[in-house]
Amino acid sequence: MGSGKTTLGRKLANKLNQPFFDLDAEIERLEGEVVSGIFEKNGENYFRKVESEVLRKIINEHASFVMAVGGGTPCHCNNMEMINQSGTSIYLKYNAGILTSRLINAKTKRPLIKNLNEEELIVFVENKLVERELFYEQSNFVVEKTNIKVENLWFFL
User: Fold this and answer.
1) Nearest to 129 by CA among 94, 102, 104
2) 154 domain residue, yes or no
3) Which of 27, 92, 97, 124 shows its CA 20 to 30 Å from the CA of 61?
């Protein structure tokens, strides 16, 4: 959350002349419900099952594309393995301080963090990074910079 996956993904897809998919947006389109609503109504297990199915569907239906996945996607249902087997994965690695500063003004758009103050937000981000790092580090490439730009990703493609 806050790493710029969607923004960079769109720009990269445009430069590569490839279709772009935001996995959460695709899930919302197919379910007719926002991600937070799916979580609230059906629970995380249901969401993760749908998420994995939609990921597999996109992979199977498109030979080449760029995709931004949700922060939890790599951590469930062997999705990281599926992602790596089907293409090149890139982890946009930022520390918790940078992510917090990027998220602080966008909290209202993000249900998981909208009620957190800055101190609570940094703790939340730190905990998520610790929890998910093992999965993220399985990416084919890790890009760790202060301000990642599309040009930083060319080397990996």
Assistant:
1) 94
2) no
3) 92
Q: Tell me which of 58-67, 86-95, 105-114 is least confident.
A: 105-114
Instruction: State the virtual CA torsion across 110, 114, 125, 87 in degrees, nearest 10.
Output: -10
Q: Kindly state whether residue 113 falls inside one of the protein's structural domains.
A: yes
**From the CB of residue 111, how many other CB atoms can be counted at a distance below 10 Å?**
14
**Residue 32 forms part of a structural domain:** yes
Q: Which residues of 70-93 are buried (b: 16+ CB within 10 A; e: fewer)?
A: bbbbbbbbebbebbeebbebbbbb
On whether the CB atoms of residues 95 and 125 are closer than 8 A, the answer is no
Distance of CA 129 to the CA centre of its chain: 13
Hey, which residues does 20 pair with through a beta bridge? Answer: 66
Whole-model pTM: value is 0.89
Among candidates 123, 93, 118, which has minimal Cα distance to 107? 118
Q: Determine the Cα–Cα distance for residues 108 and 18; give it in Å rounded to an integer.
A: 31
Residue 153 belongs to a domain: no
CATH of the domain at 106: 3.40.50.300
Task: Identify the domain containing residue 19 by its residue range.
Answer: 5-146
**Domain count for the chain:** 1
